[in-house]
Amino acid sequence: MQFGIFSVSDVTRNPLTGTTPSEAQRIDAIGQIAKRADEVGLDVFAIGEHHNPPFFSSSPTTLLAHIAARTERIILSTSVTLITTNDPVKIAEDYAMLQHLAKGRVDLMLGRGNTVPVYPWFGQDIRNGVALALENYNLLHKLWRDDVVDWQGKFRKPLQGFTAIPRPLDDVPPFVWHGSIRTPEIAEQAAYYGNGYFANNVLAPNFHFLPLVNFYRERFEHYGHGSKEQAIVGLGGHAFIARNSQDAYERFRPFFEGNPIYGSSYGLEEYAKNTPLSVGSPQEIIDKTLSFREAFGDYQRQLWVVDAMGLPLEVALEQVELLGTEVVPVLRREMAARRSPGAAPAPTHQSLVTAKYGDAPARQPTPNPNRGDNLTGARPYQDTDLGVAAKLPLVG
Amino acid sequence: MTKPFQNPDQPARLVVINAGVSDPSSTRLLADRIAQQSLDRLSAAGLTTSLAIIDLAPLAVDIAKAIVAGFPGEKVQAAIDTLAGADAIIAATPVYKAGMSGLFKSFIDLVDNDLLIAKPVILAATAGTARHAMVADEQLRPLFAFLRAVPVPTSIFAAPEDWGAPELGTRIERAAIELTQFVASGVGRAITNAAWDGYQHQFGGNAAAAERSAADVNFDTDLMRLAAGGTTRS
């Protein structure tokens, strides 16, 4: 099982000092947070995608490539990559490139996003949101698996004889998680392809996402990828940890109560009791996380938000430290002890390479020569399947 | 994928939503009179009955928090669950500033769009003056139309002078008879069973027949086909 952190990349005023970090400060901070997560042995760092203030992460692959160069082991992911408003062709290229640079330490989570105006800003219509997400992923799936793609859909201009470059590392696409909090069609798509399903597990009552997770498990089995318990499930969460419970509540309270999203509804204690928000000592965070497993079954990935609500960098780093040294080592042990032998391991690039090639060497796509028109034709790679007949676009 | 809604052998569940805030509240008094008359009529029609009352005043703070948080806490969820199980509803609100009470509307804002589909409802309002007599028909009726509920033909309005007028009792009787006919005929259940798939629903929602597992989900849709690798080209 993988444990890590995810960030929505909010730039929020610190209610204690009254100061708001600049974009520059937060961008610098997130690099340090990711680096510390790697150093303390967390498995995953994920960053969101936004296109408006007060957020900073508009370009996850740029940020993650930088972090890849500064880290050793941690898997870099997204929370989420917008599958609705991005061109799936560009997603295919950007994340394949990132995968090469990070030597396979990359996967991604796809989502629709929650900011209505982003659709029109990127020339789309939110009323098509679910259909866009589904169709765009269908194309992305193909672009990462077929060297040459002819494709036609409802939303994007058709593609003829298109090759997304670079091909995925070892010709194994990054693992994909489909994030959704209410839409069975998204869970269905995750199940159809045998991809992962992730519920953010925040801003909702305890176990609110259980019906969708169970739906995904059922459909995963229906499509023949394995049993329900072998489905690939990820859960989010939000944590604030201190040595003891009282300190945790005392230190977190001003940030919680000062937050525009959380501060004006349920009190902190009530919120922590009735939702997946984990506040307390390391043992309390451990117990609460084990209750997720109790309800959702064995799962593959647990991520927490630890840097939101205007927490200063040193506190966010301390949270990462406590997760890595006090919480996750115990959770690894406890989860392993409870784990059903049938439960699937968390996917990694290495596990996907092994699943595809066994002990044989991985394919390393090597292009054919430029024909003089900056194209390589229907056979872009030296080992391209001769059976593929690309329909190249007519020019002129 | 329609599924049966309720067991006809179970008691008819009458649920009152009361937005009156004082104690005693004339809105609650009105709701009680309508409820008693409805229970009597339902019993006379040979039905067993049960009654639940949702007083909104004690939930006011929780309702406000649920709106801001985006999800209900335990108490509001319990009220929603009670409403989801109703076979008939009495919706009673005081009139404030020429309209339904904000508390009443705020509570209704928290229920799923499909929670009250085809449920018979008696609409009721109280006010300090007869000038507000149309609030039930001009504000509550469109609201419950949006929810695809079935308000009975007679709405009940009570201004101070009505509490001394036998005509109020006559109107209450009439509304109770109408409600009884809807419940006894099972038309709400019949509509829901026959047309459920035609309404929009939210997976895992609060409605009694909400989709909660793969067995409840209709996979024969454009989006579900697209989800399973298919195409839509309309």
Average pLDDT number of chain B: 94
User: Into how many domains do the coordinates of chain A divide?
Assistant: 1
How many β-strands of chain B, per DSSP? 7
CATH architecture of chain A: Alpha-Beta Barrel
Oligomeric state as shown: heterodimer
Distance between the termini of chain A: 54 Å
CATH topology of chain B: Rossmann fold
Q: How would you briefly describe this protein structure?
A:
Chain A: Residues 1-271 form the Luciferase-like domain. With 396 residues, chain A is of the alpha/beta class.
Structural notes for this entry:
Chain B: InterPro entries: CE1759_FMN_reduct, Flavoprotein-like_sf, FMN_Rdtase-like_dom, NAD(P)H-dep_FMN_reductase. The complex is a heterodimer of chains A (396) and B (234). Chain A has 396 residues and is α/β, with parallel strands linked by helices. Helix content of chain A is 39%, strand content 13%. Chain A has one domain: Luciferase-like domain (TIM Barrel). Chain A contains 12 helices and 13 strands. In chain A, the strands form 3 sheets. A 9-stranded parallel beta sheet of chain A has the order 3-2-1-13-10-9-8-5-4, with helices on one face. In chain A, strands 6-7 form a two-stranded antiparallel sheet. In chain A, strands 11-12 form a two-stranded parallel ribbon. In chain A, helix 6 packs parallel to helix 7 and helix 10 packs across helix 11. Chain A is globular and about 70 Å long. With 234 residues, chain B is an alpha/beta fold. Chain B is 41% helix and 16% strand. In chain B, helix 1 crosses helix 6 and helix 2 crosses helix 4. The mean pLDDT of chain B is 94. At the A-B interface, helix 5, helix 6 and helix 7 of A face helix 2 and helix 8 of B.
